[in-house]
């Protein structure tokens, strides 16, 4: 067995001599923790956060996990028992989570260089230093986020991102420690701890690949590390080879190729899709929904100063469709030139699916994907093929949005808004159902927190 | 080398000298809120802090990055409710949440009580002209 050689070569003297390390910082039960920031009543309460339309459990606080509530379960199935156990359900308040996430990432960015934001609640730092110094600085970063925002984070420090994920995960789930842990710490506590990590919990493996690995008797992170990386590459591709090398302490992750860090910028596509609260049968309503989602996606396109080359639109009748007509349609339209012009894009959006709509079908969800993204600044068209640069409409829409709030203005059917908190998306009858919604305390003026004097 | 681009056509007569110096107005926010990542604007409801100049309906700016010190006006989470009071120690050195209005009692803090200091109030905005407050309350 070669495992010991790998392990010791990585930890040799690293506590004292500077070396390249990856720090993973991720917020504990992020959505549930955000709910606690704006509602201190929930400090010790078990919380579940529900998906769009209050359908399924998408996030759980540690207390809710202890009660055995599984992720993804439909809320209606457990509502009675959970409520009896004191569980509080929150509708997902993505506006609040996005705001607190941006603040959290910004605070952390001031503690270490080379931040790579990986998702709404986790980021990596690519740093050089000795482990004891990095641990001290990580503790200060953790304290700054906890005091400054009330969000608890866990931190893992290791020679590769894959190992940083594993030590952090192991520390949380097996030791019950939510703090700062380094690869050396973990190795001291249990030199064979990789044998206790199921292979499907390794970053990048997932549920699809895990059964195939298990059939090859690769059951744990340690088994995967000790597998033949060249043979595995031939069988499963280069990504798994990188994972194997990372488990051996050789960093292969190239963050510069993935979606860019600081601003959460998308380099490949922007997607916006939702389930409707009630099925849509009228093509005009579908048109309206597509317009709204297109404009949501365009908002993000403009935030990152990009142009897009094509748009895909999809609509489908749901899995629980009661009528006998089922329809899954998808259409793509290529723009004459890369563009951010909302007039062109919203026009093409509906045209992409218009001819395929099945009369009488009850559509349950729709979405739009902007593809072929390029930087506005990087686009130099030949004189004869000028980019369809928007002539000021998107700036005007953006300015109106800033001044009056989202969904007060929009193109086509996209601008309709009704009064009332729960129909805040557009006021149309198909918009999301979110009946346990917390205030958007940092982004909507009228929803700021109230303090008692 | 950066080549300056004319921002407006220059006609005969005096050109606008001010153009070269104008880079936008200062922002009230950025000068008042020194730690935007950890600051929250909250609305005050109640009259227990009037002697400190904080009135019902005022906006308070709360900076959570500051560590509360004796004498600070703080937001405390008291039994799950956010409340604004002055943090002081009484004669025996015990922390107390002090109301700045004699009609309200002080609140003794004991270790077993579920109290967290949520943040430190760095200032408040008290509107003085009703005609101008329509948007603030929107």
Structure description:
The complex is a heterodimer of chains A (453) and B (138). Chain A is of the alpha+beta class and 453 residues long. Among the domains of chain A are: 3-28 and 97-190, Reverse transcriptase/Diguanylate cyclase domain (Alpha-Beta Plaits); 269-415, Dna Ligase, domain 1. Chain A has helices at 3-11, 30-38, 62-66, 75-84, 94-109, 131-149, 161-175, 183-189, 206-215, 221-225, 229-236, 238-247, 283-303, 342-354, 393-404, and strands at 19-27, 47-50, 57-60, 88-91, 115-119, 122-129, 153-158, 180-182, 269-280, 306-317, 328-339, 363-371, 374-375, 450-452. Chain A has a 5-stranded mixed sheet with strand order 5-6-1-7-8, with helices on both faces. In chain A, helix 5 runs antiparallel to helix 6, helix 11 (229-236) runs antiparallel to helix 12 (238-247) and helix 13 packs antiparallel against helix 14. Chain A is globular, with a radius of gyration of 24 Å. Chain A starts with a helix and ends with a strand. Chain B is mostly beta strands and 138 residues long. Helices cover 7% and strands 32% of the residues of chain B. Chain B has 2 helices and 7 strands, in the order H-E-E-E-E-E-E-E-H. A 7-stranded antiparallel sheet of chain B has the order 1-2-7-3-4-5-6, with no helix packed on it. In chain B, a hairpin with a 5-residue loop joins strand 4 (81-89) and strand 5 (95-98). The longest helix of chain B is centred in the first third of the chain and has 5 residues, at 28-32. Chain B starts with 27 loop residues before the first helix and ends with a helix. Strand 14 (450-452) of chain A pairs parallel with strand 1 (39-45) of chain B. Chain A: Keywords: DNA damage, DNA repair, SOS mutagenesis, SOS response.
Notable features of this structure?
heterodimer; A: 453 residues; alpha+beta; Alpha-Beta Plaits; Dna Ligase, domain 1; five-stranded mixed sheet; five-stranded antiparallel sheet; 15 helices; globular; disordered N terminus; B: 138 residues; mainly beta; Umud Fragment, subunit A; seven-stranded antiparallel sheet; 2 helices; elongated
């Amino acid at each position: 067995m070669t495992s010991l050689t790998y392990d010791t070569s990585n930890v040799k003297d690293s506590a004292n001599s500077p070396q390249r390390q990856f720090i993973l910082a991720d917020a504990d039960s992020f959505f549930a923790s955000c709910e606690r920031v704006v509602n201190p009543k929930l400090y010790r309460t078990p919380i579940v956060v529900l998906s769009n339309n209050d359908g399924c459990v998408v996030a759980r606080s540690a207390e809710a996990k202890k009660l055995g509530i599984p992720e993804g379960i439909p809320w209606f199935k457990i509502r009675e028992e959970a409520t009896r156990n004191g569980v509080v359900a929150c509708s997902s308040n993505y506006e609040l989570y996005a705001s607190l996430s941006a603040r959290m990432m910004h605070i952390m960015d001031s503690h270490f260089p080379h931040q790579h934001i990986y998702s709404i609640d986790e980021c990596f730092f690519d740093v050089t230093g000795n482990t004891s110094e990095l641990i001290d600085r990580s503790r200060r970063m953790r304290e700054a986020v906890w005091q400054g925002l009330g969000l608890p984070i866990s931190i893992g420090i290791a020679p590769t991102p894959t190992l940083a994920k594993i030590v952090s995960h192991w520390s949380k789930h097996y030791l019950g420690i939510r703090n700062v842990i380094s690869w050396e710490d973990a190795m001291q506590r249990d030199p064979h701890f990789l044998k206790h990590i199921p292979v499907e919990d390794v970053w990048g493996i997932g549920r699809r690949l895990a059964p195939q690995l298990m059939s090859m008797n690769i059951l744990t992170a340690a088994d995967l590390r000790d597998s033949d990386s060249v043979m595995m590459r031939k069988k499963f591709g280069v990504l798994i080879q990188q994972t194997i090398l990372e488990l051996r302490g050789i960093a292969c992750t190239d963050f510069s190729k993935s979606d860019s860090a600081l601003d959460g910028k998308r380099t490949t596509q922007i997607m916006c899709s939702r389930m409707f609260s009630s099925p849509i049968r009228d093509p005009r309503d579908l048109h309206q929904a597509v317009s709204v989602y297109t404009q949501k996606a365009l908002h993000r396109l403009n935030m990152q100063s990009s142009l897009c080359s094509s748009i895909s639109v999809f609509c489908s009748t749901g899995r629980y469709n009661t009528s006998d007509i089922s329809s899954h349609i998808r259409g793509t339209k290529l723009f004459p030139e890369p563009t951010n012009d909302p007039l062109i894009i919203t026009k093409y959006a509906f045209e992409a699916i218009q001819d395929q709509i099945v009369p009488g079908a009850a559509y349950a969800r729709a979405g739009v994907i902007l593809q072929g993204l390029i930087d506005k600044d990087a686009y130099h068209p030949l004189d004869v093929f000028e980019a369809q640069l928007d002539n000021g409409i998107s700036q005007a829409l953006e300015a109106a949005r800033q001044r009056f709030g989202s969904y007060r203005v929009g193109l086509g059917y996209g601008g309709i808004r009704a009064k009332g908190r729960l129909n805040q998306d557009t006021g149309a009858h198909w918009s999301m159902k979110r009946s346990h919604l917390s205030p958007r305390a940092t982004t909507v003026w009228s929803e700021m927190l109230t303090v008692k004097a | 080398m950066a080549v300056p681009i004319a921002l407006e056509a220059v006609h005969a007569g005096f050109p606008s000298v001010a153009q070269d110096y104008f880079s936008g107005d200062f922002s009230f926010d950025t000068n008042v809120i020194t730690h935007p990542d950890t600051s929250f604007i909250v609305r005050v409801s109640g009259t227990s802090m009037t002697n400190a100049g904080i009135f019902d309906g005022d906006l308070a700016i709360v900076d959570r990055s500051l560590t509360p010190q004796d004498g600070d006006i703080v937001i405390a989470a008291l039994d799950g409710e956010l409340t604004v009071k002055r943090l002081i120690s009484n004669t025996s050195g015990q922390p107390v949440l002090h109301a700045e209005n004699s009609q309200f009692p002080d609140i003794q803090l004991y270790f077993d009580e579920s109290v967290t200091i949520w943040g430190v109030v760095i200032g408040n905005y008290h509107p003085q002209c009703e005609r101008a407050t329509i948007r603030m309350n929107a």
